[in-house]
Amino acid sequence: MIVVLLVLIVATTWIKADETHARYFEQLRHRGLFGLAETEAISRLADNDLPMTARTTFSIELSRTLTEHAGFATDEQRNELWQRARTTIQDLLNRDLGNPRRLALQSQLAAVYTAEGDWLRAEHELRPYDEVLQNQAKSACTKAIDLSRAAEKQLSEPVQDAGTKKGANALSGQEVRLLLHQIRWQLGQSYRNRAELAGAGSTERTADFVEADLFLRKLIGPADEPLQSRAKLMLATCHRLKNESARAAEILTSLEKADGKAGDAVQNEIVAERVRLLIALRRPTEAAELLLKTRGQRQRLTGELWLLQVQVLIGMRQVSLEKQQDILTNRLNEQIVTAIDRCQEQVGGFWTRRCRQVWENTQTSEKYGPELDGLMQQARSDFTAGRIDAALATYATAEQTATQKGQTALAMDLGFTRASILLEEKKFEPAAAEFFRLVSQYKTHEKTPQAHLLATYCLGRLYDEKKTQPRRESYTEALDHHIKVFPNDATVNDARFLKAQLEEQRLQATQALPLYLQVDSSHKRALEAVDGAARCYETIQRRMIEKRLPTTEFEQQAIEQLTRFLHAAGTPTEDWNVTHADIAMRLAAILLSAGGSRRSADADRWLERIDAFVARKDLKPTDADMISNLRQRLGPLRVVTLAAQGKIADAQSLLKPYTASPAELLMIVERLTPFVDTAKGNAQVQLAMLQLDVSERLEPQRSQLSPAEGEHFDRCYLKACLSAGQQSKALETGRRQIDQVAKDADRLRELARLFSESSNRDALQLAKQSWRRVEGLTKAGSPEWMQARLSVLQCCVRSGELDEGRKLLQVTKALYPDLGGGTLKDEYAAVERDLKSSTK
Question: Which residues touch 494 (CB under 8 Å, ≥6 apart)?
């Protein structure tokens, strides 16, 4: 018995506290402290021992707070807040099906949908062509009506049947009465909103106004203030929307004479409705006077009144335009802008956005005319709603209409937008066709170069999808045409960049390099262009070295160009990004390949700067892969720069604990090769031994290299063996490689030349064997064959196989008396002299 009494006491205490809690949370919401109200409610609800009455109260207050907060939130947050407001109530309804205060929760759930429908209806006034928004608003209103009608039915039943007296936690008679009035208000508001969203003259609109009238009239008399005044005010709104202006004015007059009994908030709403009525009656001057009077009586206007202020000024401006009162029109333009600014200062949020939207809609309609403005708004609405095909069709109609009206610039803009949508949807072929059509049709428009560039870009994407020769030729032709026709437009830099990328992809680095360098330094792609140029410099240098071409002048140009750029870019620890670091890495590689201790020292300094960059704490997470790549390339180059400066011990020390991938080890082997080639004496041996050490670390992982990488590794390894004086390893490796490339004339020539430089008799035999195989792979008597035969004879001379050399020369002269002519004939003559002199 005592326990029961305690439960009753606690329950009664919580019921009495409801009103206090409601006032507390209402004050927080009124002051805009939504975060504080939400935190307070959530912290209370976290108490697992909270009585059900209290849990119901705080859940309702949290839901109300989230609902009201949604009206002031950003577009991204608004739907989430409405959803949380609903979920808060629905979760509690699902948690306790026997909650005696269940009707209060159901009423709040309906209230969330009511508020959502009201907000979306108001938004639709400014975006009348947004069908998705309209449907969303209708859906919210319908859901609110369904939930409210169910609750109203239960609350309207006799108390003993309504399930409201089931213990101490049940709703009291007073609570049932207030809840019933609130539900009827929500029904009146939702029916009115849905009626306004319906088509003019439709049966749905008429039926919903009848229902709204029914529920609002049930509040007049029984309901307390301010709800009773709000019901009358809503009736006035319904009459205005039904074009019953006299009846609406009559209700408003009675409310205005009530001496503010309903409170300031309702008084502001009465003023707002009176202003709307005056606007509907095309009496903007009277509306402006009323707003001016209201501003004089109040320190601040509500967001709704500021929106009406803008609409009234727009109405007055329309009159001044019709009367051609230019001075007044300009003054009103200024007043409209000022009103929007004042709204931003006093209210901000979505009310300011709505003010701006009304003003922008007016300007657009005046600029393009109602028909075009309607088409443009419809197209934008279709696109926003994801109805892409409908948007494309509407934009096409709008372009045709603009053309017919002589608005060429607008027609181009509309066509450009349509083509851009096709591009965004990755429909590259029709997008290219549309952009090219615009170029042909609007030759002098300022967007014509951009349209041609985008058409060209679409051709490039088509080529990326399927790399066929016709597609490449179309893309190349369009790029060349753009560079030729629009040399003074900023888009020429994009065309040069795209052409450079294409040439680089096709391994035409010499063609890509000048195009990258022509991209203007102020262009948005300037940094990417320099990085592309750095890649090309590095590629061309490597090819020149492989072909034994002079590189000094080219390397000087590359080093000066990249160094100047990086010095201008600032410091690695403050100004660089990953692309700057990549350029610096390529510059260091070029410096290393250029050779010499001074170049190597310069390369080491750039590597130290890269090291400082990758150690920064403020690097973007999105650059993680690029940073990892930089670190992988940094280690091998540091090893090479130290070795190139003669710091072999330091290089070995850095390499010893270094866990490198096959690609990184290969990079060290490759980069050491030119220094081994140019070093002399003991320095050459030390570098070659370091190269062999790295090669032996790589050998167990050789299977992870690509065929091309494996071939390159073999070349480097063989050179290292020869330079280190390890003849047996070199010969063994050489024999294996000669067998592996038995049908590759170029590789055989390379191996033959390498062994021809040795004085070792076995090495010379390998050289002769390689040249013999080259003979077998080339056409007898051709310049290539004659050069190979000459090299065989030279090997005979150097290895002392003179009889074989004389016989071979005699056969060659018999078959080809001219001996290849030119310099080849002179070289044959020199070999013949060597063979004769050796007989004496």
Answer: 453, 523, 525
